[in-house]
Amino acid sequence: MVHTPVAPTSRPLSELELHNIDAYWRACNYLAVGMIYLRDNPLLKEPLQSAHVKHRLLGHWGASPALSFTYIHCNRLIKKYALDMIFMAGPGHGAPGVLGPVYLEGTYSEIYPDKSEDSEGMRRFFKQFSFPGFIGSHVTPETPGSIHEGGELGYSVSHAYGAVLDNPDLIVTCVVGDGEAETGPLATSWHSNKFINPARDGAVLPVLNLNGYKIANPTLLARISHEELEYLFRGYGYTPYFVEGKNPAEMHQKMAAVMEECILTIKKVQREARINGTLERPRWPMIVLRTPKGWTGPKEVDGKKVEDFWRSHQVPMGGMQDNPDHLQQLEAWMRSYKPEELFDEHGTLIPELKALTPVGNRRMGSNPHANGGLLRKALKLPSFQDLAIDIGEQHGTVTFENTKALGIFMREIIRKNPNNFRLMGPDETASNRLQDVYQVTKKVWMADLYPEDEDGTELSRDGRVMEMLSEHTLQGWLETYLLTGRHGLFHTYEAFAHVVDSMFNQHAKWLDICRNHVPWRRSVSSLNILLSSLVWRQDHNGFSHQDPGYVDLVTNKSPDVVRLYFPPDANCLLSVADHCFRSVDYINVIISDKQKHLQYLSIDEAVAHCTKGIGIWDWASNDDCGTEPDEPDVVMASCGDIPTMEALAATAILREEFPWLKVRFVNVVDLFKLVSEGEHPHGLSDRDFDSLFTPDKPIIFNFHGYPWLIHKLVYRRSHQERIHVRGYKEQGNINTPLELAIKNEVDRFNLVIDVIDRVPKLGSAAGHAKERMRNKIIECLAYAHEHGKDQDEIVNWTWPYVGVCE
């Protein structure tokens, strides 16, 4: 039997300390109940009436007592050891258990002066909770000290670990709900301890709160044996401490002893690593806190069990407006905390309890790490122009791996910023051609190292590249790394970015609230996401790896916080990346392939093109070749690296087949340029849109993703019927690149046919050309099926025209 540390037998709290810390906790619980139920009579100075109670009762009581219980024990150790600590609440809707202590420590009133530390301020504090026009029942961005909301469960542990990376003095106490612990993202995030270097990183103290129930069911971890639970967390690499019970006095003593031992263990590990250079992976401590759900609340309501049961999860009892018994029971419940002993006649916490609170920025609600813009320093960025790809003397003839250029750029960023930039991706850094970063750093790895790892595995105790096959954990790390003031990039295969769709949603909503409703939150670095290994080059992996739909999700979010970039070549990618690494308060999604592609623009041309976000490529157009400008017969547009190449190849065919045909070539880097200016800050005015695309000429738009997304974005533009979009249509398997393009009709030959069908002046005179295109499609497919590759003329195609109008 493995021996597990349990609560030490010592009783570290004196009788006075025990009395005061329990009184402080009673004050927290009183505030939690008040937030859920009351809109008036905050101190119960008169008998409770139905008029004092909110009509809609919203909130979650069940997890709140354990959250505030843990919070105040953190406060004790912050004061005793001058700790730099923040608090994360994993249980969903657990805000009452955090808002209470944040209010009592004074931070809330400092940020929101109308929620003052008196009776009137408390009344406003109660009324605002889960009330129209005010705050929600999660630990939302409006909550001081929060960098984790818990709207969607599963991310608290990864968020906690992301915050301590490169923060050597920071400790994050992370309370994990046992319902939350059933999620996949949470299960994988326990392994984050294999990536923490105690010499340079801070520490996470996870506290798994086993209160036994979810909304209406028991939780798995609360219904397995103590032995299984112990083995589980030892297997994850932790030393678990168990604090279990119901009696508040005994639980305070146990929690005080265990938390102090955990903090001293953390400090010892860090001291040995920083002084003695011990860099082996330690067994970090964690706590299993087993408490009743709805602790200290009503034991029964209407003859049915509530405390220590799922019925306490949300609002233990309702119907206050027409149920006098419930109203009476609510009053008795609130008076059981003895508010008259906790607050003075003005409604202010009494001095002996206020003395338990840390002061200044030691308070977890005002710790600057939880408002990371206060700590953020801009990156020292190298000149990306110095890293530009030489495109030679002619556009579209030189090839290069686009994302390799980004890897070179990040190599120089890490060189200049060795302590505040991280690259995160799921085992794909080299696969996505970013491996040049290994020239200045390696992959952090605190688990076992083998001799053969010396040969190309790129592992190091001190690396800045983080790889793990959990997109949730990676993005969670990066989100709080940014929210605590640092910088980075998350990259993944395009098709599997959907794994973190909802996580993207949560972060976008967080940024939106911060940007538009929480002015005291300072700007943080943008979340930069690179999607590579794209749909059009997944011909070898097949159908399962072909899905460009992540960008559709991005377009659904607030235009204030999302940006989408499709750089067509390496120099454009460098320009876009430089912009993204400088930006704040956005989610920047960059779509760029890792394979070799034609390079189209010099670095100066790329900067100009990306600055505009959309533009005419004169060198690929022939509608401006005469002595006077001429309107084009057709607009060939592209967005994305592979669609751009096929659109250019189609344009070249059209120039050869119909030399007199006027073709304008438009490339889109910033997808939101297509949106009307009133709907997105990057959107073009109607006048500018028509200037680029003409008011009435046919547009053949070759798009990287699903074609209907373009129609969604341009729905307010004039003459919709002239906009014909090609894109991915769920047609693919193990194909050659051209075969995959043909199946989805984004290839050069189908694009030429589209032009023939839509330009009236071509008419039946183009019949022979159309037949040649159809024959070429048949020929290319047959060649691919016989030889397993595309024809050399396709693979080696380059832009054939040197001059603008040749």
Can you describe this structure?
The chain is an alpha/beta fold and 806 residues long. It folds into three domains: 15-370, Rossmann fold (3-Layer(aba) Sandwich); 385-596, Thiamin diphosphate (ThDP)-binding fold, Pyr/PP domains (Rossmann fold); 615-795, 3-Layer(aba) Sandwich (Rossmann fold). The protein has a six-stranded parallel sheet, sandwiched between helices. A five-stranded parallel sheet has the order 1-2-3-5-4, with helices on both faces. Strands 18-20-19-21-22 form a five-stranded mixed sheet. Helix 1 packs across helix 2 (64-81) and helix 2 (64-81) runs parallel beside helix 3 (96-104).
List its traits.
single chain; 806 residues; alpha/beta; Rossmann fold; 3 domains; 6-stranded parallel β-sheet; 5-stranded parallel β-sheet; 25 helices; 35% helix; 13% strand; elongated
